[in-house]
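Could someone model magnesium ion with this protein?
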Amino acid sequence: ATPTAVMVATGKGASQGVLIKGGNALENAHKVKTVVFDKTGTLTEGKPMVVGLKRFSNVPIQEFCTVAAAAEANSEHPIAKAVVKYAKKLHQQYGSNTEYVTELRDFEVHLGAGVSGNVGEKLVLVGNRKLMLSYNVQLGHEVEDYVSETERLACTCVLVAIDGKVAGAFAVTDPVKPEAERVVSFLRSMNISSIMVTGDNWATASAIAKEVGIDQVFAETDPIGKANMIKELQMKGVAVAMVGDGINDSPALVAADVGMAIGAGTNVAIEAADVVLIKSNLEDVITAIDLSKKTLNRIR
Ligand code: ADP
Ligand code: MG
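Reply:
Sure, complex below.
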């Protein structure tokens, strides 16, 4: 496209809340044959909430929540915020006048798995199955059943282990964006396929994918895995757009022919992307591709 055409399209995009950083993105977007969507915060609202609580030990419910919140209060993860919010509410309901989080030492983040720390003499683990297994915490049938059940319902199961035993779990749900299914189906009508990639587990990922009409899913994928998946598609000659919001999406956003960041996402993702969807609305994935198509047709 000519510099003028790029300028016009960029201006038009900006007025519609689609920030296009330079001519390359505009040149590439019309060739896109596959759109790879991150799950959490991209296809979903990214505002998870606790919808269930199950205890597997006789640790009192208040203590259980307080200890879980103590670990999660140190984390920036949206799931952590949901757990803290829930603990706070529960604490208020019980009318306690003590702090709803206890003191925690040796806080550690386990990427794609959860968090850990010490409360008093006790080790506290909050996260998924992978986290529990890495600390040799046995789940047992009752816990396994609860995990499968919640995941089948498109929830993420957050396990809480205290002193080497699973004391309980939270079922956390993150609703899908209202426009997600419509966008996937419209892309299909444009002959563009959609793929989901996520760090979350296979069962939850598959349940969410089904809700939005995506049939290709890559779950339990780390940031480098997300980028590699895109490179593999490119090696087959497919032009790929990646849509994501998280720090864990940035290598993939850079690798893609067009990286699109959700406006409400992290700064790292916004910086890594070629296009920023200011309104955080997935419809604007189509707006960006359309804009590119129109710009390039005009000069032919
Ligand atoms: P995504 O790619 O979906 O944004 P992440 O890579 O951030 O997911 O995390 C993958 C999984 O690790 C989460 O679905 C959750 O099960 C677990 N996890 C990560 N951080 C936390 C946390 N702070 N508390 C509980 N679980 C966590
Ligand atoms: Mg995300």
